[in-house]
Amino acid sequence: MQVLSHVTDELTDLIRSATRVAVLSGAGISAESGVPTFREAQTGLWEQFSAEDLATSDAFHFAPALVWTWYRWRQSLILQVEPNPGHTALARWQQGLRAAGGDLSIATQNVDDLHERAGAHVLAHLHGSIFDHRCAECGEPAELPVPGYDGFAAPPEPEDPPTCTACGALVRPGVVWFGEMLPMEAFDAASAAVRSADVVVVAGTSGIVQPAASLPLLALERGTPLIEINPVESDISDAMDYCLRGPSGTMLPALADAAL
Ligand code: APR
């Protein structure tokens, strides 16, 4: 494993020869847009709760207003921020490879829409989308207006979730919570993309949360080179061939420049 502070000539050669690139992104790639990662301290009222405490069906069962409002507040925050140079570099790289007959696929653990707003196509949202809602009992999708909270202001007072128009049960966020199955179609698509890639880039994930953290390891079966982008060592750094130690807003544009 090479730990690097910049894109070296060797890495440039590797990236330039790759026509099929699989990118696995996590919360770190949205951090420079102003979306807090999951394992950073929460603010205000939310200081007492970790993401793990809020992102479970048990939490929703026992404190639906608290969990519901946390997600609506997070939606507001995401709507108030913009994609950063990491997102736009991936979109540029994807468009460049596609124009040349190759492909760059993105599978993300992020429930935000910043890859899409940067102009990229996302193959798989492994943990769903924060902008989807569905009935907690019958699964009926629910369309809701954009929330009116200020995502940068003090957390709002918890408000009850709406009820399902079909069965009257509570509507829940359409994200994947701890202990829940990932959408199989998304996981299978991401697995296939990693297995058929010439190079795999893992950007902004702690590598803690399974099964998403196991995806990069599929590259080991074929000896596909793995590149990590993270300012610090992660739980999966040991499996990497190259660790670019820096923010994705700097390292992804450098990789895209090397590739195109
Ligand atoms: N550039 C790249 N990486 C960064 C940056 C940055 N600017 N800033 C922080 N990071 C790294 C952190 O060092 C950390 O390793 O991003 C990672 C974020 O880790 P997590 O918060 O654990 O996010 P993620 O790995 O996406 O979490 C997985 O956990 O709570 C669940 O469902 C939620 O999808 C989420 C999942």
Automatic annotation (TrEMBL):
The record's domain comment reads: 2 residues (Tyr-71 and Arg-74) present in a large hydrophobic pocket are probably involved in substrate specificity. They are important for desuccinylation activity, but dispensable for deacetylation activity.
Q: Main EC class of this protein?
A: transferase
Report what the protein is called. Answer: NAD-dependent protein deacylase
Q: Is Metal-binding among this UniProt entry's keywords?
A: yes
Please explain the role this protein plays, according to its UniProt record: NAD-dependent lysine deacetylase and desuccinylase that specifically removes acetyl and succinyl groups on target proteins. Modulates the activities of several proteins which are inactive in their acylated form.
Localization per record: Cytoplasm
Which positions in this protein are listed as binding Zn(2+)? C135, C138, C164, C167
Q: How is the cofactor bound?
A: Binds 1 zinc ion per subunit.
Segments forming domain Deacetylase sirtuin-type: 1-260
Report the source organism: Nesterenkonia natronophila
The record, for InterPro entries, names: DHS-like_NAD/FAD-binding_dom, NAD-dep_sirtuin_deacylases, Sirtuin, Sirtuin_cat_small_dom_sf, Sirtuin_class_III, Ssirtuin_cat_dom
- Gene label: cobB
Family assignment from sequence similarity: Belongs to the sirtuin family. Class III subfamily.
Q: Name one GO molecular function term.
A: NAD+ binding
This protein's superkingdom? Bacteria
Which residues does the annotation say bind NAD(+)? Q109, N110, V111, D112, G204, T205, S206, N230, P231, V232, S248
Catalytic activity, EC: 2.3.1.286
What does UniProt list as catalytic? Answer: H127 (proton acceptor)
Q: Per the record's keyword annotation, is Zinc included, yes or no?
A: yes
Read off the Pfam families from this record. Answer: SIR2 (PF02146)
Which cofactors are reported in the record for this sequence?
Zn(2+)
At which positions is substrate bound?
Answer: Y71, R74
- GO terms for CC? cytoplasm
Print the keywords alphabetically.
Cytoplasm, Metal-binding, NAD, Transferase, Zinc
Q: What is its main location?
A: cytoplasm
- Catalytic activity reported: N(6)-succinyl-L-lysyl-[protein] + NAD(+) + H2O = 2''-O-succinyl-ADP-D-ribose + nicotinamide + L-lysyl-[protein]; N(6)-acetyl-L-lysyl-[protein] + NAD(+) + H2O = 2''-O-acetyl-ADP-D-ribose + nicotinamide + L-lysyl-[protein]
